[in-house]
Amino acid sequence: MLVLLLGTSSLVSAGSVPTAKPEEVGLSTERLQRIHELIQSYMDGGNFTGAVTLVARRGRIAHFEAQGLMDIDAKKPMTKDAIFRIMSMTKPVVGVSILMVMEEGKVRLSDPVSKFIPQFKDLKVAVSLPSPPPSPFAPPAPAPAEPRYYTVPANREITIRDLLTHTSGLVSGPVSNRENAKVARKKGETLAEYIPRLGAVPLEFQPGTQWAYSAQAGLDTLARIVEIVSGQDFDQFTRRRIFEPLGMKDTFFKPAEVPAPRTVTLYGKIPKGFQRQENPEFMDGAYFSGGGGLFTTAEDYLQFGQMLANGGQLNGKRLLSPRTVEMMRSVYAPDTLPGRSRGEGFGLSVRVINDSVAAGTALSTGCFGWSGIFGTHFWVDPKENVVAILMTQTMGFEITIDFETTVMQAIVD
Predict the structure, then answer these.
(1) How far apart (Å, rounded) are the C-alpha atoms in residues 52 and 241?
(2) According to a count of CB atoms within 10 Å of the terminal CB, is the N or C end of the chain lower?
(3) Angle, nearest 10°, between helix axes 400-408 and 29-44?
(4) What number of other Cβ atoms are within 10 A of residue 143's Cβ?
C-alpha cells in the first residue's frame, strides 16, 4: 500500500511541468522511495520537522512528495503547495535577471559596479594587522574584540562578474562584516537607499583573488543594478519578466502577499527540539533582497529550474538564450581559487560541479545549482536531464549530500 501511495503521489500535477511514471523517464519507482526513507530518517533524528521533495527528469515530474509537519504546535501536516523562505536560492533568480538585461545590452559582465552606483568608485581593501606579541612580564591580554586592519586602494574596480561569482570581497569576511554593521540598513529602507552606503565598506581582499561568500551584499547590489537599468523595482522586474512568464504564481518578495495558511513555520534547533523563529528582519516588504528575500513553493521553483534545464525557455516562453544559460553554468571561479573546494567551481550565481570525482559527489560533472540557509537546495543536471528540489525550514545543510546521492541513484536508464 505504501508503494502504491508513493507512486500515486508523484503524479500530482505541478505547475506547467507535466508528470510521468518514474520508469517512463528512466527512474526507478523502488529507488525513488529511498527519498521518503531519507527524509523520514532526518526527521526522526531531529534535523527538521517536515519537507517537500521534487524530482523531474526529461522535463517531466517523477517524484513529488510532502512529509512531516509544517507547524508543530498546530500539528499541521506538510503540503505540496507549502511556501518556504528560500533565502540564498534567491541568488540564481538574480543571476538570471542580470543575464536578461545583459542580453538586452544594458550591462556587461566586465562593467564596473561604479558605472551604475558611483559610490563604488575608488573602493579600499582591508589588510589585517597581526596581533601584538604577548609580553613575558604581563598576564595574557584578552583577544581583541574587533579585527585590526589598515586599508589600501583596490587594484581594480569590482565588476558585475565579481559580484555574480563571489570574488569581489564585498562584505565577505570579518573586517567587511564589521564595517558593514556601521552603515547597516535601517528598517523600511529600500535597495536604492541602502546599497550606495556599501561603497564606504572596505573589501575583504583584492578583487578576483579569492572566493568568499557575499551572503547578502553582493547579490543585493546586483538587484539594485537591475532596478537602475530596467527602471523597475526588483520585485516588479522579477514578477513581470520571470515569475509570470513561468507561471510562478506563489513566489513573493513581500511577506504581506504570502498566504499565511500555506507558509511553513520557521524553526531553529534547540537541545530539546525546535524553537519557532520570525522572518529575517530584512523581509519587511520594502527591501527586495537579491541575497535571500524570496518565498516560494517547490513546484514554483521547479518551473525556474526546468527553464534552465531547457536552455532558457519553458512552454514557449523564452527568458534566456541557450548560449547565455551555458555561460551561467560555466566555471568562472575555478576550484583552484582560494576559498573553493576541489571539484566545485562557481558560475554566474551558481555552484558548478566541474569534476564530480574530485568533488566526491554523485552529481554529474556540469551540474549547477545552489542552496538556502534554512534548508532548501536545488540543482540542474544537464547530462542526466534532472532537476531536483528539497525544501525544509530549519537551518542546516546536513541532508544535502545524502539527498543528492539518493536522487542520482534512482537513475536507471
Answers:
(1) 26
(2) N
(3) 170
(4) 6
CA 156: distance to chain centroid? 27
293-326 pLDDT tens trace: 999 999 999 999 999 999 999 999 999 999 999 9
| Cell numbers representing residue 326 in the block | 551555458
266-270 and 273-277 strand pairing? antiparallel
**Helix, strand, or coil here: 29?**
helix
CB of 169 within 8 A of CB of 125? yes
Q: Kindly tell me the burial class for residue 19, based on how many C-beta atoms sit within 10 Å of its own C-beta (0-12, 13-18, 19 or more).
A: middle
Instruction: Confirm or reject CATH 3.90.25 for domain 107-134+143-230, answering yes or no.
Output: no
Give φ, ψ of 269 to 5 degrees: -80, 135
CA pair distance 206, 172, nearest whole angstrom = 12
The pLDDT tens digits for 16-64 are 899 999 999 999 999 999 999 999 999 999 999 999 999 999 999 999 9
pTM here is: 0.93
pLDDT at position 16, please?
A: 83
> CA–CA distance from 9 to each of 2, 28, 173, 301 (Å)?
11, 15, 44, 19
Q: Which of 60, 77, 76 is nearest to 14 (CA)?
A: 60
pLDDT reading at 3 higher than 50: no
Nearest to 221 by CA among 320, 284, 288, 279: 288
